[in-house]
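Encode chain A's predicted structure.
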Amino acid sequence: MNYTELLNYVAPETLIVLTALGVLIIDLTTLRGAPLPERWRAGAGLTALGCVAAMTALFLSPASTPDGYLAGMLVLGPLAVMLKFLLLALTLFTTVIAVESDFTEHIGEYFALLLLATVGMMFLVSTENLLMIFVSLELLSLCLYILTAFNKQNIRSAEAALKYFLFGGMAAAFLLFGLSLVYGLTGELELTKIAARLAGLRRDPLVMVALLMVLAGFGFKIAAAPFHLWAPDAYEGAPASSAALIASGSKVASFFLLTKTMMVGFVGMEGSGAWRELVRGWVPMLAVAAALSVVIGNLAAIVQTGVRRLLAYSAVAHAGYLLTGVLAAQPEQRMASVLYYVTTYALTVVGAFAVVAVVEGRAGNDKLSSFAGLSRREPILAFCMLIFLLSLAGIPPLAGFFGKFYLFRSALVGNGTSQSLGLLWLVVLALGMSAVSLYYYLQVLKQIFVAPAPEEGPGLQSTLVGRSAVTALACSVLLFGCFPNLLVGRLLAALGQ
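Encoded structure for chain A:
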């Protein structure tokens, strides 16, 4: 093995790991006696610098790996580079959310874990090997468990982390059992070779058991019903920056991995999710999960009184929309529609959590009433929140509208250019529940723009950097909605279309 060549391929991940170690060492030595705000700014600055350096290394490193390189453990190409750049950008925005925090004194440890979670996500989007998939998922999960529990001032943080860990451990067991069955049946670890071996085992009941276990494990990672029970507590109890990473970067990596695993490893085992014409395979399994997600997520969000839990149940519903795109018959349109939607969703939800963090800094909680009169106290943040919530609801001309249109269109197109009504029932259900979602998003906007502002109370703690980041995210959501081909064209080009 040429280790110099390998180091060139993983240069961005190496820089992130070195940054994590550097932030940890500097905070424990040079900055140990400095005031907390100074330590937060220094840690955030070093973290941001490491992310920018890794982004630069992405364009200087080799763009692709040879076929079969390291048995599929490292698979680089234009699409993987795009996704790594996105994940680094999301980490950068998450760092901006954390810069004015005060929930812990262990600042070096916090940013180190944030960066290590990013490394896990970057490896997830650049591997096709079962062993590497599981190791990367566990690296990401372990970091997120700890990041969720970092706010020792809030008892809900510890409770959320415990639930997240318990559900995550169970999901990891399901996933590991499913992957071990796949390996036992095929004797292969690489997804492309697994697909070739499974072609002659379609009628084996163990294949369906393995598929069910794998989908259960992934269902937890993407917070799809009925594997979503950890999400509301994690979103509510975790620090705002940790919740933003869970809702954005983790979702991007997990959905890409799910789609890729089904497309490459279980190709030919799709089955059918058509109404009253179910054929066993992974399509009907995901169709049921998608239907449950859009119904449970949207109906549960209606009764929430806190914006964090509202966003958590909204995330469950959006997982359902995304699963509808995963079921598309055309592979390229399936991947492009899912990645467009999950990218714009990630940018939107990071911006929403940034606004929530500012409001929490003033009010001490995320209740709907805490957002009362935000438009008169912070008009820029209020306008940005308007864009984020209307995009989540799917209102044109924002990115969420085109994202849903692209997903649902892809689900209704058959293997050629002809239309297929097999998944029409799921698309109609998703459209109906999307209309329902507008109600609870408008409840938040009602507080922001209609409810009177409190006469007394501490001022908002937004900074110039924070407002600039939120504004940039809102502009990106608007830009990708008005000109979707800016992103879709690059995705299709990266997919070879």
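The two ends are 33 Å apart (CA to CA).
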